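Morning!

This is the sequence you dropped in the shared folder:
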Amino acid sequence: MARTGAESVAQAGSTVPPPSGAPPRSHPVRRRAWRRCLPVVAAGLALSACGLHVSKHGVSGNVFGHHFSAASGQLPSGFPSGVPVPDASRVLGGGGADNRWDVGFAVTGSITSGTAAYEAKFRSAGYTVSNIQSGSTPDTGAPSGSPSTTITLTGSVFTAKDSQWTVQVESGSTSSVSNGPLKSGEFAINITVVPASSTTPST
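The structure's back. Tokens below.
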């Protein structure tokens, strides 16, 4: 594949969440949902013409006929209960619109065993798991004014599907000392959930 799941997800773990309380930025596919939702939310607030529910951790409601939900530190309102979440994890943030969801998790433990356990959890819930890919790749970055530093991006991707949902899963970590919102001993998992009748965005 042109871009490994490791590159996509590791970037999610190496960025700092926006101050607005939105979930951490990740792969461009992941950002697309936020770019769709947030301007609509802002317009709705400005017009005060829609029903919004604002809580400590997020916002949900209907704007111009589109239902949306976004949260930081917890699953967004309306997230489907039939979609498994990783064990030993905390929610970094997530959001959804029109029954499509993007959520980021910080998971404690080894990325290899943690990802395998998440795959097994989907299978136990009746999902078919496919398109499993994994690997690592070097990536060179240079913070402004500093020498280039090479870090290793490690991760995997897989697809899980049942009669209701198709879930694209990306897990990843980096060898970088600074992992943004991730704590020591954690790796990142990002999931995109769409109705089974839809096509899952490719990574």
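Headline: The chain has one domain: 5-195.

More detail when I'm at my desk.
O.
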